[in-house]
Specification:
Elements lengths: L4 E7 L5 E7 L10 E5 L1 H5 L4 E6 L2 E6 L6
Antiparallel strand pairs: 1-2, 1-3, 4-5
Amino acid sequence: MGAPIQLYVDVNEAGEVKSVYAGKDIVATEQYDYFFIADEETANNAGLYKVVIEKMKPKLVLKEAPNE
């Protein structure tokens, strides 16, 4: 298992991830909506996630697949 990845994300009104800044030992130079410590797989697939608020804390969760 690799080192944790710092994950900065901006989201739309529905909480879907719209932009990502991720890496090891990085410093954001602009404001982002949320910050997470994630594994490399989550960071690489951040577009498949959305942010939800549970008990006053942000959490990354997989978006549900559309019903076909």
